[in-house]
Amino acid sequence: MSWMRGPDRRRLLDELQRFTTRTWRLTLLRGVVVLALGLVILLAPLTSVVAVVALLGALAVVDGVVALVVGLRARGAVGSGWRLAQGVVSILLGLLLMWQPEVLLVSLAALAGVALVVVGVGMAVIAGQTRRMGPATWRWQVWAGVVLALAGAFLLAFPATSVATVAVLVGLAACAAGIVGLVHGVRLRRTAKDLKDLQNH
Asked: Least buried of 16, 102, 116, 173, by fewest C-beta within 10 Å?
C-alpha cells in the first residue's frame, strides 16, 4: 500500500477499515457457534439418528444466519454476494433437515454433502476475493473451504454412508471451520484496530 498516495490511499484505508470493523465480531461469533455445535455433534451422547439430523439442521441454520448477516453488513464489499448466497442456501437446507428429519433421513448424506460443498466453495471463493482486505489467515480459509468441499463431495459420491459417519464428518468439518473462523475473527479485530490507528496519524 506504500505506493499509493493521497485520495486513493485514504479511500482504500476507509474501505478496509469499514470492512474489518463491520465483520470481525460476527466472524468471531460464527467461529464460536460453529465450533461449539461441531463439538456437540462429535461428543454428545445423541440417543437417536433423528436427533443427529435435527442437530445438523440447527448447525446449518445458525451458520447460514450468521453468513447472511455478515453479507448484509458488508453489503457492497467484495465477497458479500457469495456470503448472502451461502447464507440463504444453508438456512434452507437447515430448515429442511429440522422440519422433517425422519423423512429426510434416507437422503441425509446427500443433503449434508450439498451443504458442505456450498459452504466450502463459498468460504474458499470469499477468502480469495477478499484477501487484500483481510488478514493473512485468508489462506487458511481457502484450505478449510477446500477440506469442507472435499468432505461434501465424498458424501455425494457415497450417499449410502451411515448416519454416524455423516455426523463425524460434519462434526470434524464444523470444528475445523469454527477454529479458522475464530482465528480469522481475532485477526480481523487486530487489523481493524491497526487501520483505525493508521487513519488517526
From this structure: 102
